[in-house]
Amino acid sequence: MFEQLKGGETGGEDDGNFGYATVPVPAECYSILLSRLQGEEPNSGFAETREQLNQTVRASPGSAPLLSALAIVDALLGRKQDTIEEARRAARRLPISEDVMDGPGVLANLAVVYSWTDEPNLAFEQRQHRLTDASRFQQSNIRDIFRRTRVTRPAICFTSAERLWV
Residue 32's CB: how many other CB atoms inside 10 A? Predict the structure, then answer.
């Protein structure tokens, strides 16, 4: 699968499955993740992949999902201070209240960053915050969504919406 990503139709990018924010990243980001999951320390060869993603972020300066993906890569590379600030900035750019589809992914990436940077308390706090915001959204807006879309089977839709947030 990894080889398909590197040389496939997407030009060396994944299809938006790296992290929780659904944006394409260079396929080599998976090499960074894999090496860290295997307990290896980041090596200097990963700097090129990070810079490639950084250039994409600079080309799309308003993209919170891309910035949060860069934050995950920086966390995997051990750049603790850079990564926490990047992830927080991404979360500020795209709160759930403004974007209920991509906002939760950016917040989930913030929790991932906290986890990879040895900040478990902040990760759990972020997870709780995310669930609270999602619950608030569901309680206040789910009926309006059903009314506007004329959903006839709200239980099925609610379950789908719930999966999005949890």
Answer: 25
Which residue intervals of the chain are DSSP H helices?
2-7, 29-37, 47-59, 64-76, 80-93, 103-116, 120-149, 154-165
Instruction: Say which residue, 66 or 5, is predicted with more confidence.
Output: 66
What's the farthest any 2 CA atoms get from each other in the chain? Answer: 55
What are the structure tokens assigned to 73, written together?
A: 């890569």
Write the single-letter amino acid at 36: R
What are the boundaries of each domain within the chain?
2-165
The one-letter amino acid at 17: N
CB of 115 within 8 A of CB of 123?
Answer: yes
Q: Count of alpha carbons within 13 Å of 72, Cβ hemisphere only? A: 31
- For range 6-34, the mean pLDDT: 78
Give the per-residue pLDDT at 66: 95
Half-sphere exposure of 17 (CA within 13 A, CB side): 8
pLDDT of 160 > 70? The answer is no
CB atoms near residue 113 (< 10 Å): 30
CA 117 to chain CA mean position, Å: 15
Task: Count the residues in the chain.
Answer: 166
